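Sample A.
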Amino acid sequence: MSDRTILRISGPDARDFLQGLVTNDVSKLDQGLVYAAMLTPQGKYRADFFLLPMGDAIGLDIASSLAPGIKQALTMYKLRSAVEIEETDRRVSRGLGTAPEGAFADPRDARLGWRGYDGQPGDANVDWDALRVAAVIPESGVELTPDSYILEMGFERLNGVDFKKGCFVGQEVVARMKHKTVLRKGLVQVAVDGSAPIGSEILAGDKPAGTLFTQAADAGLAYLRFDRAKGDMTAGDARVHWDTDTAE
């Protein structure tokens, strides 16, 4: 995966440093990969990534487009922490079926197989977008944008947030959404007849009802306003329908 970058975070304070910043519990590294995000102080999405054990250090597997900004943010946050942050030349591979030695199961959903970091040969002929649509998995820079709230994007279902770990940047907003509100918007799978560009507005009649993102055959991922997403909708030349009986 040439579109991924691995940052190496090392030093005696590495775990404690990350624990106060990311949405998931860093101690879960003892069991394998940890899916997590960094948020803005206002609780909005900044980046999502996988944390992986790298001996005495921690690896951070992130979309290459987001890596420079997150490296800069981590450097800003470290203050006097005994932490070093550097980019590595390691590359990511992924595949389905039994994970090869040294690879890790994808913690978001078993349907997404495994991720390797030590040259394991991956599966080149997998339609990963189709798997993401089937499992309702958002992608960095596609469904996940700076306007996203992670609970609306399914991070609790995807094992990307831990409400028992203690504080992290943006935690108060996330906790409030979890405990004091009912989500009125969110990422869901929809049926699509036709096609439309990623980011097309979904209309219910003449009212905006959401945005259509990744499509795979006759299904797609859409961010919907639930109170308007009823009956047949349109996105450009495509017809869109959300079956609430199959919503996750």
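Sample B, a different protein:
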Amino acid sequence: MKRLPLLTLAFCTIAFGACSIFKKPAAQSQQAAVITDRKWKLVELEGQPVADKINGKEPFLLLQTTDNRYSASGGCNGIGGNFTLEGQGRIRFSAGMSTKMACEDMSIENGLSKVFTLADNYSISGDSLSINKARMAPLARFIALK
């Protein structure tokens, strides 16, 4: 007789715990919806502020959900490839294409290209997106363009 309440309690604990598993993907897809299909302006790279225009162009990042492709610019060439959102703020970028023009200032572009090879997670705070490596300081920080 004492076993019945214990079994009931164990069953309820397992059942309620299982329910929380199904809520996580919805939260993850909501967060993914916040960062994708928006244009993000690069404002900080390796802890240093980035000018509004580099070589006359605005540095940016765009993550497209239709084909999981990203496009970006550090103010000179177009950079692009594929990205994967792996849940819980994890992101992976794979190398793709890049134009090969030579511009006066290539430092931001070179730094941004490096971010895509190192990054493994992201965080969002309001309209700010940080691309990070492990728990270190953000590699790059972006502001959402309206």
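Observation for Sample B: Confidence is low (pLDDT under 50) at residues 20-28.
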